[in-house]
Amino acid sequence: MHTVVVETSGLRAEDVVAVARDAARVELSKDALNAVAAARRHIDELAAKPDPVYGVSTGFGALAVRHISPELRAQLQRNIVRSHAAGTGPAVEREVVRALMFLRLKTVASGRTGVRPEVVQTMADVLNAGITPVVHEYGSLGCSGDLAPLSHCALTLMGEGDAEGPDGTVRPAGELLAEHGIAPVELREKEGLALLNGTDGMLGMLVMACADLARLHTSADITAALSLEALLGTDRVLAPELHAIRPHPGQAAAAANMLKVLEGSGLTGHHQDDAPRVQDAYSVRCAPQVAGAGRDTLSHARTVAERELAAAVDNPVVLPDGRVESNGNFHGAPVAYVLDFLAIAAADLASISERRTDRLLDKNRSHGLPPFLAHDAGVDSGLMIAQYTQAALVSELKRLAVPASADSIPSSAMQEDHVSMGWSAARKLRTAVDNLTRVVAIELYAAARAVELREADGGTASPASRAVLAAARDAGVGGPGEDRFLSPDMAAAEVFVRGGGLVAAAESVTGPLA
Question: What sign does the CA torsion over 399, 405, 406, 411 have?
């Protein structure tokens, strides 16, 4: 099994995905444990002094004005976890919680938060045991970190609350820890606060969304190429010299992908034959420009994620010279903005994909294809309602593109009077990514059928297109023919796209695509 070693310098995005989705094991480097121990010594020194220090010897938030005596400090740290574990609604996905836990582990292992080494080790042990705290949909405002979600994770470390075991069964966390020989942590000064105060939930969802969207952009380039081919469009608009004069890197990459997929096609370039047209419609001709803008948006989001992965987000933090300083680094604005930005780009990529599908089905615009790609139009409805489903998904994506980060609502008696809503931005982006996957899958379904109909009529698709068609059929995506129950075909297309089968099939001919 793959192992990820946690260093003080931060993480790579692929490490987060490996732990969250693939159950990679976590190990703490010696340097990280040494840094944690050194920072803890500073906290212990401050705890022994009479001066109030936020999070060490005071209350929290609007209650920070109260100095807490030494005999109450362990109770203070337990209480912050218990009281802040106030989430509600459905449980969020296992991979999200694992990413949340792992990213908090990354921060506490940085030597900037002041927890003891045994707390950090327990966090790693819980991840490696496959114990996943129950974290609820609602509870985070994305400021002071993802407080409620992280509190539910910290509750599990204390042996309290509910968690999901490796077998998927939800049970009391204390029982699960005992079964795996893990002792619950007894929190001391600063530790409860340090476990809660980060952007880890929204960051984990951003990292996974970036991975998914990278695959989806490549998938969308492939389906756009198939649609262009099926519509007898021209690939001359994909020439590198045309994209070099508008030097957006994402645009050039999308055009290059489409050109690779269409290489050797006998269907492209016939736009002057039966119904002459000087140019293809925007949804075909401008596919690289729209998909490319999404790719560049994704590049920016990855830059933000990389910076956050190198960060130690907590309040207060232990600085290298031993000072413990309050700060506002827990504010989720940098992450929230790009989460919303990606949702906008996803909605537009889905929108142009749906327009191509609609064009394939309309006999007045499809240049010789049968109405709705039906076997016997009138008796058969073909893919008419598949496009309805796609349109419904696109409409939902447009609603999901409304930014969460433009909102704010004050909390904690106006002490926390401006928040990022980054958790909400992340949650809606996950839905957007799922819906975009389905939209691209439906375009694939329609374009594949249309290309097969062209070949049945004597045309020759590109080698890459034929490889995609063969792989799609092997994956259970049905081809042309009389009307049948469509949902299973569409579900198979979704699995084919989501699992990377579409990209792998095209790359078996083209080589690596961007």
Answer: positive
Rounded distance between C-alpha atoms, residue 347 and residue 432, angstroms: 7
Which DSSP string corresponds to 134-164? --EEE---SSSSSHHHHHHHHHHHTT-SEEE
Alpha carbon of residue 11 to chain centroid: 16
pLDDT band at 5 (very low <50, low <70, confident <90, very high): very high
- Count Cβ atoms below 10 Å from residue 18 Cβ, excluding itself: 19
* ∠ CA 82-83-87, rounded to 5°: 90
Q: Are the C-beta atoms of 135 and 91 separated by less than 8 Å? A: yes
pLDDT in tens, 168-215: 999 999 999 999 999 999 999 999 999 998 899 999 999 999 999 999
Percent of the chain's residues with pLDDT above 90: 85
Contacts of 28 (CB under 8 A, 6+ apart): 5, 6, 109, 120, 121, 124
Q: Which domains does the chain have, with CATH numbers?
A: 3-198 (1.10.275.10), 209-311+349-510 (1.20.200.10)
Q: Max alpha carbon distance in the chain (Å)?
A: 88
Count CB atoms within 10 A of the CB of residue 512.
9
Q: How is the chain split among helix, strand and coil, in percent rounded to 5?
A: 55, 5, 35
Is residue 54 part of the annotated active site? The answer reads yes
Tokens of 188: 């001391």
- pTM, whole model, 2 decimals? 0.96
The rounded Cα 135 to chain-centroid distance in angstroms is 17
